[in-house]
Amino acid sequence: MAKIADTYFRTDPWKIIEEGFDPAHARVSESVFSLANESMGIRGCFDEGGSADSLRGAYINGVYDALPIGRSYRGIIDHTHFMIPAADWLLTRLTLDGETLDPGRSDCREFRRELDMRAGTLTRTFVWHTASGKALRLTFIRFLDMIRRERAYQRIVMEALNFSGEIGVVTGLSFGLVHEGYGRCFWGETRAEARGNRLMLQSVTLASGQEVFAGAVTDLSGIPCAEGKEALLTGTVLLREGEPRRLDKRCVILFTGRHGEALWQAGLDALDAAEAVSPDEALVAQRSWWDARWATSDIRIEAADDSSESDVAAEQQGVRFCSFQLAQTYNGGSMRHNIGAKGMTGEAYNGHAFWDTESCCLPFYLFTDPRAARDLLLFRYNTLPQALERAKMLDCKGACYPIATLNGEEACSLWQHASLQLQPSTAVAYGIWHYVHVTGDTDFLRDYGAEMLLQIARFLAGRVGRGAQTGKYGFFGVMGPDEFHMMVNNNAYTNYMGKRTLAYAADVLAGMRETQPEAFAALAAKTALAPGEPDEWRTIADGMYIPVGGDGLIEQHDGYFNLPHTEINEIPVSEFPLYDHWSYDRIYRTDMIKQPDVLMMLYLYNASFPEEVKRINYDFYQPRTIHESSLSPAIHSILAAELGKMDEAVRFFGYATRLDLDNYNRNTREGLHTTSIAMAWANIVYGFAGLRSDGERLRFAPRLPERWKSLRFSVVYRGRVIRVRMEREGTAFRLEEGDPLPVVIADRDRTLTREELFIPRP
Amino acid sequence: MAKIADTYFRTDPWKIIEEGFDPAHARVSESVFSLANESMGIRGCFDEGGSADSLRGAYINGVYDALPIGRSYRGIIDHTHFMIPAADWLLTRLTLDGETLDPGRSDCREFRRELDMRAGTLTRTFVWHTASGKALRLTFIRFLDMIRRERAYQRIVMEALNFSGEIGVVTGLSFGLVHEGYGRCFWGETRAEARGNRLMLQSVTLASGQEVFAGAVTDLSGIPCAEGKEALLTGTVLLREGEPRRLDKRCVILFTGRHGEALWQAGLDALDAAEAVSPDEALVAQRSWWDARWATSDIRIEAADDSSESDVAAEQQGVRFCSFQLAQTYNGGSMRHNIGAKGMTGEAYNGHAFWDTESCCLPFYLFTDPRAARDLLLFRYNTLPQALERAKMLDCKGACYPIATLNGEEACSLWQHASLQLQPSTAVAYGIWHYVHVTGDTDFLRDYGAEMLLQIARFLAGRVGRGAQTGKYGFFGVMGPDEFHMMVNNNAYTNYMGKRTLAYAADVLAGMRETQPEAFAALAAKTALAPGEPDEWRTIADGMYIPVGGDGLIEQHDGYFNLPHTEINEIPVSEFPLYDHWSYDRIYRTDMIKQPDVLMMLYLYNASFPEEVKRINYDFYQPRTIHESSLSPAIHSILAAELGKMDEAVRFFGYATRLDLDNYNRNTREGLHTTSIAMAWANIVYGFAGLRSDGERLRFAPRLPERWKSLRFSVVYRGRVIRVRMEREGTAFRLEEGDPLPVVIADRDRTLTREELFIPRP
Is the ipTM of this complex over 0.90? Predict the structure, then answer.
């Protein structure tokens, strides 16, 4: 855990601020200053491009291309897909006295970049001093419309500081962006038109055949030109000294599933509609959207009198940055998308969504925006056909959800992950259970959840084995969440999650059969459910092997306890990450684990295990974990807090909120750890407020870290907004909306109402 | 074991005969009619090429090229190498009345092809009927010189049956052969010259930079032409009805490690030398070479009166074919080469040598040609630097020998094999021990063996782990010989081979230190041997975990006994081979095993285990083995014979000798199972004669199958030739050369002399 902050941005409660431009941090800044509106995302790259180090990335959620990766054995994918850079709508060139602005080379001073998390805007300003002695203040503002998701806005404000005269401006759109990793552009034949102050492009991805329309309408008057994959407008703007001059560009990026002329026409219509709204009006609406969002999702932290105010201010900023990025990346605007491990902030991980969605991100949405949680699960429903197909590839029935995907197909080319990790499927089942348990949305269960559960249970029932010696059921040849052990048998996590999934699926179907016989009959017919199947699932669930010792210590998998011990504190820091410094095979044969496995299960089904079991397993596994997954520390922090190990809880919390702001993993340049930062929210709400949502009632067990004076947040729960204010003296709970709610606080039954309930610290 | 013969060739004691040409068998025939002389090999393809299905393959031992395969994790290779087709020296085109001979399309009758195993010649004859009504008998004869390994001979005999007139002939050399698997030619810039009746080419491989000279001198008079990668001679031959006309082409293929002009000059000299010998003289020498070879390696089988003579004749032919192919592929002419799994008979397995060399092929050479056995081990010595490098890649010290290689570098791109299988290294150690044990060649041990053993032991000592619970040493995260289980712990085979290797290495060094202190000091200095290292090896060997139960049943690896059971007889035959029909991951999670693992260890260290242990393990593992390795049945047959299970022994022997002749695995088209056929020899000598070479003395335990009247073979042993004649009534032993030899026959001490010793059947 020798991760060290690389402090670069200024601390501010609502903003991320960069003062002065450091080329060495260019890509980190690009990642941190990423904007998104769920439908599309853009890295914080310079509108005007130039020679500074940059990963120019403008992405569209759900837009990808595919490449073959060679055929090997059956059940191993032979092609993969990945998010590709799409339309570059920022394209801008400025020329003054024959000099073209290039922040990487030009003399630019007073550089400042600001991300305003209350408005979702990115503002960059600096003064360009030309070789000819002219000084021009430039301010670039951009935002992606959170309401009309196809719209993007660019504003350039130019103020001549010591001259009057003309500046040359080129503004444009391009489908020519190159995927840096693969070194090529994945856009094919492009229709390009430029007319008056309008630019229009439509292109198609090479292999996946997805069509996208991009259009822009700009204030600039100039000569339109459309050629190849670009549409450009070239003009001049007359500047008068001291009079700021504004140039607005309204863009539309349309990815609808429509093709050809139909898409083109829809694009033109969308452009008309965008032109009818002024950028200022759009900005006002944008702020309102974020105001409403923050009202339910904000977490406020105050520093204790005796602790460092700046440290806590940094944590406050970090927590808001996490919530901001999550809301940008996903808020249920579409059920065609999921949450990429890096959102839409870079090429790393190919834009793929992992099992992190259901295991790590779902709680954030469940308690801040349940509709979005539902839509996330509907993505899995919509991709059930792909999961059925994948199970077939693996010689199984039912549905096997992918380890990594954009479109529902398995995209992970490492067979040892794609074929051996069953947790994506059990995580979907867990997510369904958790969602229904928290929201009470039984309609969802009937219409979508039951079918997914049935197919997942069917897959598990086919994949399970039976120990020849023990006669117990278990999963053989798997990799659990801890990816430092593979091809193991009876991984406790996998067995337990399988057991719960099978039992839940059987329960759900039994319930439906009883109370909704028609829906049940329809589902049984659709899925060709054999009469004995749910019974078989229950038999397997009952006979599932869970390796708990008499003292409650759970063996991670068969033989784990006999693995050679590695003292992880003796591994030199220079050898991390191990994947880069150790021979691949060497990682897999000691008791060192990458991320919580047994502990993950104790976190997910927290209410099902007594404290002593959590304690003995935490004490055993925590010192064996090296946290090469960024979600690992938060899980440990939450369990540490539950077990009263507050120092450890705070230590593990340490970098969770500022993982990317302080570039702890030194790879923020590649993009943000979007799903990991979801765990920062959980770290506070589950960890320090002790929220538990897997028992009969909501539970709280507040444990305020010493360094904080107060912590305030809200959770949305079944039509209520629960306001929580933790202070040193105790915790106040109040319902903002809705009926009284029975909960458990610090192990005692309580009822929350619109009146504040203050529970003094024990 | 539902393998079925595809009977196609005619049975003959010394020949392989094809009568009539069946296009569906074209590639199978090409494989079976492969010729080699250790330095080079050629498939039985038609000299004149044409449209018939063909894998035109002419190979040179040790000539390969390489391709990158993408970087993944540390310790996983990022490029691989593979045998490539080299100079095509058969190139011939015949034209008569404007019609070009193409056996795939032309009217060819009375087709017959014969491989003569006493001469190493391939003869093909047929009558070509042209559209113009002419009939021409053509006979193509080829052989690769077993004495002057750079020489190859082609003879074409043309007899006009119903006309006199001219026939157009093109003969040539080409470096233009395309590797079928990769779809490209791996030969680069080529120097080509044609002068008089001489053709000369020199080319270089694209990535590995190996240079090869190819030259030919021919009887044909014509117009020489050299262009690109070809050198051709185009002429005409006047035929007179009824008068056969012969065209001889003497070729030289030179691969010496020399470059440029030096190689060219050496090539010209070699061509001069070849021209000085008539093909008929060469053929006489060739026959003598084979006579001498057969004198020590032939196995003769007679059918019992009450058994099918044709079945036994087929076995006789099969056994000879095995010995013939082995001697062709390797006979110790060079220690730069090893034995490819498919010899030089096709592209499959990339020409790579596997651990089969030491585990399966070595005994054949040990007892028929010990010098060749030594040279095989010297290949490992010569590639020790690559093995040291490979160990480093795996974060280990010492030497790790490759799973698959041509040049000593690991070429297996499947990390799970390349990184987890330790048996290539322990097999080399076993081979050294076996060689020294059988031959008494302690010079070899001192000069080469000790250094290899030291480095292998060092590797094992670094790779071994120590069970946290048991405190015992063992190998964790490995794949044993049974490739249906991977990433297992305490694989019994690996642990036991490691234990024996470590103990043997320590013993050898201790012996050297005592008796050859100077050699020891030199070795210790060269290898920076720490004083405590051999002691550490002994500690590990003593503390190695060998999972033997009280009843002697050995668990293949930790947890094997609890794996779900698969009833292998219930798997439909249509699902074999499983790699092609089962999802890759599915293969790895049952108790089904691919090939002997525990039984392999009982075979290799046969004298170290009591019969009861062999019996209980045979009875347990045999029904769990599906033999997806072609060496599997022979091992089972040998152990079954030892345990008196003669019916099973004969059943497993069933297809061993005719694996390729009858295309049992339906993949002979890709090439011969060269290393597997080595096991056919062992199957007879170890199986039915009960030879054991791992105890104090040589042991025999003859068990003649009922269907045989007699079995005769010889083994070479420490300067002696032991002639063995097994008959129904008993077995006769006689030394042809050398001093009396104490042996054990049927558990009784005996002494072999020049007088026949007859041991009646008990």
Answer: yes
